[in-house]
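glutathione transferase
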Amino acid sequence: MSATATNSGKIKLRLHYWDCRGRAQAFRYMLEDIAYTNKNVDYKEDFEQIDGTPTTWPEHKADKTISGPFRTLPVLHWNDEHIFGQTLTIGMLALRNNLVYFYSLNFVAHLVARKFNLYGKVTSSVADPVLLEAYLNGVANCAYLDVIVGACMCIWNTPDIENKTSAEYHQIAGVKDKLDGLNTLLKQSSTSFFYDQTEPTIADYFTFEAYLVARDIHSVFLPEDCQALVKLEQVMKERPALAKYFQNNQLMKRFTASPFEREYLEKISKIK
Ligand SMILES: N[C@@H](CCC(=O)N[C@@H](CS)C(=O)NCC(=O)O)C(=O)O
């Protein structure tokens, strides 16, 4: 499969994940944007039903044509030919196909980046594409692993958000601290996107969801200063594909598959 054929020919993408935000949401925004701006991309999502987890999932998990090489979700089916697992790898792969102008430092991603010869957009402050790549990957990793996964883990672990001395509270503090770091870094950019980019990169899609997921769960996760994150939300939501996505109420209410989620969120929503 050559880079030219992949970039100009028809690309069929099917994302498979549970009917919740979880690990896939940042990637959903990326795919919505990609499909909107690249008319050769046919993107749809196949949902795994959380309610069917005890019955349907074991069967789907055992079937590698559905659950991919790692037998977990999300997975991305590419042209009914390739199945990619691992959220960050999927994100980087899409980026690498010049759909949002970036590639990654991750080993698999490097391979694809070399094959496809994609090297992002350097700026006067970061003129080396490898360094730019590392910077943007650092942001995406932090937003995904530390904030999004961290906040979702809090829903599973149901920490007492008022007891700052409890062992479980450190996860809340960790999410808040990383969001603070992301906000500070974003403020240093001359544009609304990380590292002076004029179009969103993987860093912006993941940070956008990181901010939204934390805020939507509870303000306890938010740092005092969210100015740059608020601005990022605004510009991301002005993008036609994402504006449509939010107007159509496509954002799912459910964050995780935790059976205690609703009860926990109701409980903490009463705490200011
Ligand atoms: N590192 C992987 C983790 C994927 C993962 O743990 N997925 C969970 C759902 S959020 C899963 O598929 N669990 C079902 C199972 O392991 O049977 C990623 O980021 O994509």
